[in-house]
Amino acid sequence: MSQSAVGREVALWKWALIALVIWVIGYMAFAPSLSIAQRLQTEHQYNETFLGAAATSHAEDRAAGWFKTMIVDRGLLDHSSLGGADPSFDSNKSETVRKIGMGIDAAKGWAAARVAVMWAMVYQVLTRLSVSAIWLPYLIVVLVPFVVDGWVLRRIKSASFGRSSPHAFVFGRHFVFLSPLIYLVLLVVPVPLPAFVLPALCIVCGVSLWAAIAHFAKRA
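Above: the chain's sequence. Below: its structure in token form.
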């Protein structure tokens, strides 16, 4: 594996993470809170259809417990809430002062909506992490046969005149290297995530890992 290829992959990781952070900040600044609530409800229906009501309920209860432990119990939710209208800008003041007060109240309303979007996104990420935890044991079961078969095939090629495909190796290596980044994107992607996406990612990752091992330089 060349150092230049690794450098390009690391640079891609860096710029993709920077773009992801900028996108998340922009999304929290402008997305309507109702859209996230509707997305969570749609995603709940997807999970219930694919996983069943019991597994979905267990995953969502676990996510709610994580949210309570990390956010609510630490007082972060209370500290992030904004107060109501400022009484110093009441109707008895001058017109100019009241207009300033209306502007401040409007800014507070916008900020409160942005805070609500932020916590809704946090809950969405926790919910998707909890659903992912359901597939974690199956991920190991899926990856082990691909790794073993790829290693056996590589050993056979190394002892014979079998040819390795550099294109398959490059594809497999790139996808394995980028799969954690793809997973991070899936955690925050602003569309309802069907429950089969994560197991499909596991299978594709297994195939990529097989290609990277089986088509590695046979004498290496």
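Residues 84-89 have pLDDT under 50 and may be disordered.
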